[in-house]
Amino acid sequence: MSGSEQARGIERARKAAEGLAHSAGFGNEHSSEAVPGALPHGRNAPQRAPLGLYAEQLSGSAFTEPRAHNRRSWLYRIRPSAAHPPFRRIDNGALRGAPFTETVPDPNRLRWDPLPDPAPGTDFLDGLWTLGGNGDAALRTGMAIHLYAADTAMTDRVFGDSDGELLIVPERGGLLIRTELGLLAARPGQVALVPRGVRFRVEPLDEVVRGYVCENYGRPFVLPDLGPIGANGLANARDFLAPAAAYEDVERPVEVVNKFCGNLWSATYDHSPLDVVAWHGNHVPYVYDLRRFNVLGSISYDHPDPSIFTVLTSPSDTPGLAGVDFVVFAPRWLVGEDTFRPPYFHRNVMSEYMGLIEGAYDAKTAGKGGFVPGGGSLHNMMSAHGPDRETFDRASAAELRPQRIDDGLAFMFETRWPVTATARAAGADHLQPAYDRVWEGLERHFRP
C-alpha cells in the first residue's frame, strides 16, 4: 500500500469513527437495527425473518448456564454464517495460544521496552505478538497477553477468536473496530472488548497504532462485586457503550481468519460476514473510557490493595480468585497521613503483567531503560517487587501534602496462574536485560 493510499484509508476510518451511535450499559439486553423493520418483535426466529434476512443465534455461554451468566445475541443477517467454504490452516506468525510450552515458567522479574514499529503494510492481525499466558484454550481456562503494532487496515480481511474474548488496550493511535454488531472507535485511554466468536476488522485511525490485548479463555469478564463499597463505585455499568447495528453488503472475496485452539485458520468467503442488519442480546462488544473509572482509596492512612482498582474480572470456581482481572491506575488523589504512598513492597499469589498507556507510573522510574508507554513488566506469583530505589528514596522523604496523580495511566492484567513467556518474548531484543538493577542500592537502615 502506498503512502497516499494509507492516508486515504486513515481519513476514511476517521470519518467513519465520527459521531458513532451507542447504547449504554454493561451486560444489558441491547437491541439495534440499521434498517427500520429489520428486527422482529415478539419472537426471535419467525417463520420468515423481516426483509428477507436470516435469523441466527450467537451463544457466548452454554444454553443451560444460569440466567445471570448466560450470554447470547440474536443476529439478523443477509447470509447465515453457515454459508462458507472449508477453513485451512495458515501460519500463526507471532501469535501463540495456550498451553504455553515453548519455555518454562520463570520466577524472575521481567520487563520489556515497547514493540518496534511494524514493517510497512502490517495490519492488526499480522501485528499481533504474543508475550505469554497460561491455562489451555481448548479447556477454556486461563489467558494470554498479546501486543500489537500496525500501520495498515485489514482490507477485505476479518478476524474472529473462538478461543476467548479480546480486551484491546490502545496505547499509541486509535482504532476503528468494525464488528458484526456495529462499529466502535477506541483511542488511547479507552479499551474495547470483543466477545468470543464475534468477527471484526480493525482500521488504524493514525499512521502507526500500538497497544496491548488480553485474551480471556475463561468465564467472560464481568464487573466485580462491590461488597461493603455499596451500590456505586469503580467502573459504572452505564459507561460501557455497545455499538449500533451497521452492516456491509458486499460481494467480493473476503478472507475470514479464525483463531481456534491456538492456531489460525482461513477461509475465503464470497461476501463480507459483517452483514448483520439488526441484532438484540447481551453477547456484544463494548468500548469503555478508563478515565471514567470511579477511583476509591484511603482517606486516612495506608495504601489500599490494588484490587480496589479492578475494572473487570473473569471469575473462577474459587470465590475471589480470578482467572484474570483487568485493573487500571487512573488519575486520583493521594492523601494518606504517615503513609508510604506508592505501592508497597510485596509478594503476591497472583501473577501481574503491567503496561503503561501514557505518562509515568508512580512506583517506577520512567525514561530510557525504565518503565515507558508501550512497555510492560511481568512479576510472576511470589516474585518480590515494589517501588524501585529511586522511588523509595523520594517517597520516604516526601512532604505529605494532598497529591494529585494525573500524569500517567497504567493498567494490569492479573491472573491466578503463572504467565509463561513465549520463546519469542523470552529472547526478544526489547527485553530489558538489567531490570533487577532498579532495586540495587536499597540500603540497610536498621538501627537496633
What's the quick description here?
With 448 residues, the chain is mainly beta.
Structure explained in plain terms:
- The chain has helices spanning 3-17, 389-397, 423-426; strands at residues 22-24, 30-33, 54-59, 72-77, 88-89, 110-112, 128-136, 141-150, 157-161, 165-172, 175-179, 182-186, 190-194, 200-204, 209-216, 241-243, 254-260, 263-269, 276-281, 286-289, 310-315, 322-329, 332-334, 351-359, 376-379, 403-405, 408-415, 420-421.
- The protein is mostly beta strands and 448 residues long.
- It folds into two domains: 3-40 and 50-61 and 72-290, Jelly Rolls; 293-434, Jelly Rolls (Sandwich).
- The strands form seven sheets. Strands 20-13-10-15-8-7-28 form a seven-stranded antiparallel β-sheet. The chain has a six-stranded antiparallel β-sheet with strand order 6-25-24-27-22-21, with no helix packed on it. Strands 2-19-4-3 form a four-stranded antiparallel β-sheet, with no helix packed on it.
- It is globular, with a radius of gyration of 22 Å.
- The protein starts with a helix and ends in a 22-residue tail after the last helix.
- The mean pLDDT is 95.
- Homogentisate binds at residues 346, 361, 385.
- Residues 23-290 form the Homogentisate 1,2-dioxygenase N-terminal domain.
- Residues 291-446 form the Homogentisate 1,2-dioxygenase C-terminal domain.
- It catalyses: homogentisate + O2 = 4-maleylacetoacetate + H(+).
